[in-house]
UniProtKB/TrEMBL annotation:
<dbReference type="InterPro" id="IPR017441">
    <property type="entry name" value="Protein_kinase_ATP_BS"/>
</dbReference>
<dbReference type="GO" id="GO:0004674">
    <property type="term" value="F:protein serine/threonine kinase activity"/>
</dbReference>
<dbReference type="InterPro" id="IPR008271">
    <property type="entry name" value="Ser/Thr_kinase_AS"/>
</dbReference>
<feature type="region of interest" description="Disordered">
    <location>
        <begin position="391"/>
        <end position="429"/>
    </location>
</feature>
<keyword id="KW-0723">Serine/threonine-protein kinase</keyword>
<dbReference type="InterPro" id="IPR011009">
    <property type="entry name" value="Kinase-like_dom_sf"/>
</dbReference>
<feature type="domain" description="Protein kinase">
    <location>
        <begin position="95"/>
        <end position="392"/>
    </location>
</feature>
<keyword id="KW-0472">Membrane</keyword>
<feature type="binding site">
    <location>
        <position position="133"/>
    </location>
    <ligand>
        <name>ATP</name>
    </ligand>
</feature>
<dbReference type="InterPro" id="IPR001245">
    <property type="entry name" value="Ser-Thr/Tyr_kinase_cat_dom"/>
</dbReference>
<dbReference type="Pfam" id="PF07714">
    <property type="entry name" value="PK_Tyr_Ser-Thr"/>
</dbReference>
<keyword id="KW-1003">Cell membrane</keyword>
<comment type="similarity">
    <text>Belongs to the protein kinase superfamily.</text>
</comment>
<dbReference type="GO" id="GO:0005886">
    <property type="term" value="C:plasma membrane"/>
</dbReference>
<keyword id="KW-0547">Nucleotide-binding</keyword>
<dbReference type="GO" id="GO:0006952">
    <property type="term" value="P:defense response"/>
</dbReference>
<keyword id="KW-0675">Receptor</keyword>
């Protein structure tokens, strides 16, 4: 067995060897069923090193989410490349500081280069660019996620899931190697850059992320992602979105079951209220999280922002009243877009977010329905800025000065400032 599938045997020995107590052995070190998720944790938390998990660190050792895999499922691990620690050390330039892409609770993510047909390191700028995630020694929570990701490794493949290339397990070293995502995370583009992400790119990203979730939910053995957020949506050079970090993913309800009962994990501001309240997990929990991300895309605001005034810190609570009112919803559009967005697109996205955020999980759409709503929004060209200038022109023709030049009255000016088609700067500080 070890000769034919040595990587799996080594993995199991290594995982057991790192166990610290009998209390945690069955939970932290259990390899999840490979039928659950194909992952991509790479730059995952990468550009977003926030430790906002909903459970306390010691809860990771209290429960097991997934059963042991069957012998037939183990074969998929061998399809991954198995790197030596020295190879990854060389590929990242000895894990030098200037190759760090980011840091999370699990450890650092480094940029590296490997040869195209194998595991050998390559010179910077040649071969294949990869992201190497290195687990901190003795990191209980990170170890659990590492095990989950390796357990999920190659079962699911989709254009909107980040690709896992391989792993390294030597002594106490635990590393994962992923495809490098050129543009980093959606979080980085929405909240950490001065140049606003164009509306067309926002729609493209939302659609790609929706397709990734739909693929997980609608498969023969459904998967609940459980940690959908902007920092886990990675972008390639063409702004194609790919889901990453499946360390918290969970197998969906089995036939006849309505939900999965599990410990509450995730990130504050994104987790569905019924899941936080009861621990009952369904695919509609992911749909709620998608609704939160849609709001972030629409408004340019974070799901939770303690720097904002009281009453505006929780994005869902603040934005919900605007979503149901077509006359007001334009007031919450990201002001940095400066009217460079589709009027109908904003309406559709707002209504979709409102439906995804329904308090009743059964009233939320499934992700296939979300994809259908978002797909035609890519081709809309009814920009708000064009409508705004058209209105100005019409008002100017209705009333002109004697010399024929347009004149806007005080009341007209006041009306335009209060219009849904304004920049919204007075509302979105």
């Amino acid at each position: 067995m070890e000769k034919n599938c040595g990587c799996w045997a080594v993995l199991k020995r290594g995982v057991r060897g790192s166990c610290k107590s009998s209390a945690s052995r069955d939970s932290v070190n259990t390899i999840p069923r490979t039928s659950l998720v194909y992952d991509a944790a790479t730059e995952t938390r990468y550009l977003n090193a926030s430790n906002r998990e909903l459970y306390a660190p010691n809860e990771a050792q209290l429960s097991s989410d997934n059963p042991n895999p069957s012998a037939t499922e183990n074969k998929d691990v061998c399809q991954l490349l198995q790197f030596t620690f020295q190879e990854l050390k060389s590929a990242t330039g000895n894990f030098r500081p200037d190759s760090i892409l980011g840091e999370g609770g699990f450890g650092y993510v480094f940029k590296g280069w490997i040869e195209e047909n194998g595991t050998a390191p390559a010179k910077p700028g040649s071969g294949i660019t990869v992201a190497v995630k290195s687990l901190k020694p003795d990191g209980l929570q990170g170890h659990r996620e590492w095990v989950a990701e390796v357990g999920f490794l190659g079962q699911l493949h989709h254009p909107n899931l980040v690709k896992l290339i391989g792993y390294c397990i030597e002594d106490d070293q635990r590393l994962l190697v992923y495809e490098f995502m050129t543009r980093g995370s959606l979080e980085n583009h929405l909240f950490r850059r001065t140049i606003p992400l164009p509306w067309s790119n926002r729609i493209k990203i939302a659609l790609g992320a929706a397709k990734g979730l739909a693929f997980l939910h609608e498969g023969p053995e459904p998967v609940i992602y459980r940690d959908f957020k902007t920092s886990n949506i990675l972008l390639d050079s063409e702004y194609n979105a790919k889901l990453s970090d499946f360390g918290l993913a969970k197998a969906g309800p089995q036939e006849g079951d309505t939900h999965v009962s599990t410990r509450v994990v995730g990130t504050y501001g994104y987790a569905a209220p019924e899941y936080v309240r009861t621990g009952h997990l369904t695919s509609k929990s992911d749909v709620y999280s998608f609704g939160v991300v849609l709001l972030e895309i629409l408004t340019g605001r974070r799901s939770m922002d303690k720097k904002r005034p009281r009453g505006e810190q929780n994005l869902v609570a603040w934005a919900r009243p605007y979503l149901a009112d077509k006359r007001k919803l334009y007031q919450i559009v990201d002001p940095r877009l400066e009217l460079n967005y589709s009027l109908k697109g904003v309406q559709k996205v707002s209504q979709l977010a409102y439906n995804c955020l329904s308090a009743d999980p059964k009233s939320r759409p499934c992700m296939d329905e979300v994809v259908k709503v978002l797909t035609p929004l890519q081709d809309l060209n009814d920009l708000a800025i064009l409508s705004y200038h058209s209105r100005l022109s019409q008002q100017g023709r209705r009333k002109k000065k004697p010399d024929g030049t347009p004149q806007v009255t005080y009341n007209q000016s006041k009306s335009m400032r209060g219009s849904p088609l304004n920049t919204g700067k007075q509302h979105c500080r």
